[in-house]
Specification:
The complex is a heterotrimer of chains A (348), B (314) and C (508). In chain A, 73% of the residues lie in helices and 2% in strands. With 348 residues, chain A is mainly alpha-helical. Chain A has a two-stranded antiparallel ribbon with strand order 1-2. In chain A, helix 1 crosses helix 2, helix 2 packs across helix 3 and helix 4 crosses helix 11. The termini of chain A are close together. Helices cover 70% and strands 2% of the residues of chain B. Chain B has a two-stranded antiparallel sheet with strand order 1-2. The longest helix of chain B is centred in the middle third of the chain and has 27 residues. Chain B starts with a helix and ends in a 19-residue tail after the last helix. In chain B, helix 3 packs across helix 10, helix 4 packs antiparallel against helix 10 and helix 12 packs antiparallel against helix 14. Chain C has 508 residues and is an alpha/beta fold. Helix content of chain C is 32%, strand content 24%. Chain C contains 17 helices and 23 strands. In chain C, strands 13, 16, 19, 20, 21, 22 and 23 form a seven-stranded mixed beta sheet that branches. Chain C is globular, with a radius of gyration of 24 Å. The two termini of chain C are 43 Å apart. Chains A and B meet through helix 6, helix 11 and helix 13 of A and helix 5, helix 11 and helix 14 of B. Chain A: It is a multi-pass membrane protein. Chain A: One of its GO terms (molecular function) is transmembrane transporter activity. Chain A: This is Nucleoside ABC transporter membrane protein.
Amino acid sequence: MRLEPVAAPGLARTLGLPALAIAATVVVASALAMLAGANPFATLGLIVKGAAGSKFAALETLNRATPLIFTGLAVAVAFRAKLWNIGAEAQLYAGALMTVLIGTQMGLPGPVAIPAMAIAAVLAGALVLLGPVLLKVRLGVDEVVTTLLFNFIMLLFISMLLEGPLKDPMGMGWPKSEAIPRDARLPRIVDGLRLHWGFGLALISAVVVWVIQVKTTLGYEIRAVGQNPQAARFASIPVGRVMVKTALLSGGLAALAGFSEVAGLKGNLTLDLSPGFGYTGIVVAMLALLHPLGVVVSALFVAGIFVGADSMSRAAEVPTYIADISVATALLFMVLAILLTRFRVVRG
Amino acid sequence: MEIFDILVSASFWAAVLRIASPLIFATMGELICERAGVLNLGIEGIMVFGAFAGWMAVYAGLGLWPGVLVAFASGALFGLAHATLTVPFGLSQHVVGLGVTLLATSSAYYAYRLALPEVTSPPRIEPFQPLDIPVLSDIPFLGEAIFSQTALTYLAFATVLIVALVLYRTPLGLALRAAGENPSAVEAQGLSVTAIRMGAVMVGSGLMAVGGAFLTMSAFSSFFFEMVNGRGWICIALVVFGAWMPGKALLGALLFAAFDALQIRMQQTPLGAEIPYQVFLMVPYVLSILALVLMSRRAEVPAALMVPYNRGER
Amino acid sequence: MGAREVVLRLEGITKRFGKLTANDDVGFALHRGEVLALLGENGAGKTTLMNILFGHYTADAGTVEVFGQALPPGAPGAALAAGVGMVHQHFTLAGNMTVLENILLGTRPLLAPGLGRAAARARVEQLSRDFGLAVHPDAKVKTLSVGERQRVEILKALYRDARILILDEPTAVLTPQESDALFETLKKAVAQGLSIIFISHKLHEVTAVSDRVIVLRHGRVVGEVATDQTDRHRIAEMMVGAEVALPHPALGTPGAALMELRDVSTPPEGNRTGLRRVTLSLKAGQITGLAGVSGNGQGALADLVSGLIAPDSGELRVAGQTVAGWSPRAALAAGVGRIPEDRHATGSIADFTLTENAVLEGYARPPFSRAGWMDWTRARAHAEGIIEKYDVRCPGPEARIRLLSGGNMQKLILGRALEAGPKIILANQPVRGLDIGALTYVQECLIAARDAGAAVLLISEDLDEIRALSDVIHVMSEGRLSPEFPRGSKTPAELGQWMAGQGFSDAA
């Protein structure tokens, strides 16, 4: 078989194939539910209900989507420049760490503390990605492996701090930090509803990233470097510098996920702050075809699956890992579907 | 001097070989894939699934060796998924690899929860036992250090030899290397790049799964979540460190395992007790990054690594 | 050529790609001991035909017969097994492997236990002697010269007992002297009963080596003649439908030196030759032609002029000033217009629109951006201007450039460079692969730019093109630059000697 470009793909192709990918994912999830001895329709129903069936469920989904929008944007920005940042998890924790440090150690009043925490988080996240990117630009070290390995190093570093200098004396021995004061927390968007301004910040970030990509020279440079670094270099685009700028942007966005989780939701830093938001961000970004506004939609979708599956597994005997499998399956089917919107398979 | 005492103890070197074994399997697996031109980031998840599948097979009543085969086959299956998407369809090897890691990891966890819904502490199996090689295991020091390992460790070393022989001494290895260097050279000789690459990824993934299975079937006797813990990523660094050559990669794995075994023992010394244990646990990851930095721009990367091949296109 | 046994017969081969018919009812026969030239412009369908013969494509209609046996369609390897060997224009060799390994690839069943190196080496050495193809079996291919690599390709075919050899543009990468050596090898092969298809678009070679000529145009066979019964003009007419003449521009009037290199050296990069003490002066109102076999330092010189690399030693002066901090941006600012060698890989970004591609070199300055913000309205107007003025055939400025033909893509790149009002123009292989219309247009633009006072550096492997267009000619060999020769002062054979490295003061 060979792949042949489709000159002008029709609407059926561009929309139908991705829809087919989602349908295939649903089929896989149903099969998994049946393996667990559950009725697939009931299981899927429970997932949908758990994700959006009530105001509580919907808010829970929005809250879960918030860090995913940040990490999804971080990955989308980086992948656009073909910078393979798989280290959003480490950058997230760097952001969370700075948030807790500023929030608990500086004694700043709330209105000062919140922007200070956010800025410190962004700087820390940017810094964490700067190392691997400089290694890539200067020495040609593959950033995939270095950013992956940094995730493990960062988590151990956090663990060390949480069992050492940052340990909450009132924490009954659990490795967790002190909580940041109430007035330094992100306020709720609507009083009484459990949805904090981190979500608002995430939406604003998505719009900002989108504007950067389509309206600024930096966005143009990032796209050029990602599409064809050789042509970009020839055309006088400083490829190394663009990579570094991209890294700062990407790392900063991922760190905001940590900031928003600590300052908006949890209040303190623990080792299970992120159940892999950094890695899931990759799926979110890919499902959104790296489009910043699409990231919001796909983050909501992915968050819905996770929240729904959590709720479902409490009711039915289906392990919650069905959500992780579904998300991974959706990713693989989707990248294939997207390819097939642009190419057709021909024989000979 | 404590380090000296550690280095001259036979049990330390025995531990080095034990720690190296899963890395050797998985590194050889990754090396085969990359030599054929495919970066396989599914390695981490495939190791997790292999650890689960091998262990589960034994737990369900199969023997140890059938368990190893089950692990291999499960890895090959994920390899098939990876290869189908990355070879004939030419999709991004980064994205597909990470997707396969997510899929394999979560599939292992899902299956584990399905199979054992009630357990609180992970059940144990009877793992591979150390196999004293007659005569050789009686040699002082060396006998204990090298010749009293489990059969899987011996197999790991044999794998390196076999991989090297196949790569450099057979038509198959020649074609595989050429597929990673210049696929159109392979196609021009009437061979199928697609078949060679897919086969390489499947066999390589099978080896990765056996590496994972070593953890549950030889090193420990239970399956834990997160037991692979980044070993897959480390193996990718080891392939680079070994300059895509089996012998050098083996050396890298041993060197790496020696550092790892050393840090474990250092933790138990009085000096080590002063330092947070996390610092010791960071050592393997930091070493891997160092290895990558050291080897940057030195090794000869397979020229067509990560370059998809579409027939008839030039 | 007494024997008339047909060894290869193609009949009614038709292949369509979408709306394009690449091969339309193509048929011919090759006889034993014959050299058949297959002639045609780029895009005439030669490559498609060979891909069908080798099973890489399946024809929509038609049959291939080798030694009387029909080949199964779409089965790569069938032609090889039947005794057809191909030397591709882009060599299919693995650089990191040895000559012997490259030859052995695919000669034994994949699951055979060993490679049989010793016997293979002896056989390769024997073939080397028999056919005059000297090359060391244990050398890594990447250390070989282009001519040596081609010998490896021919050895590959001979090792597999090929009785039919197909050579695709074999002389494009050779010096005239190396080409002569190749022709000697081909004569030896024919004498041993092999049959040869020689694909080319160079008429003088075709008339020199072939017994019979088949001309392809727009995917069809438009003519078939015995070489000794025709002449170049008639063949040329068949190729393009009418005789084309290279332009004969009047000599330019040289002015001040706009860019000067004094003893400039650059280090080799990987396989690429660096510059060795190159001294060159590009003068206003003059086309400086650079001849040479590709890979002899032209790449480094082009990169230097376009700002991608800086001199390692020596001096680069632009408008009389020694440059510091030389970069692509500095080059553009200094008024260097660049037409890169590879318009797909270097000159454009395939998935960018024409608008985005039109401002690739100027995006960072007004009017296309201010304070970091792109002005897409101005950018689009600029692209529309180029499309209009340079006759770029396209669906519009918002179409992706990957949809354009090579000629239209090149016109956009040319327009992008010329609209910036360059004082110095680097044109690296500006017409390679273009159809006649686009080719003539690009050449005319370069001449017009020269007449308007620009200093043009024209790099080409096509000696005829260099000789026709250049006011002065230099030859490059192994990173060294020959003295300046005025147009017409050297014969092709004399230039060929320089290309082969003879005449340089430090010749080894």
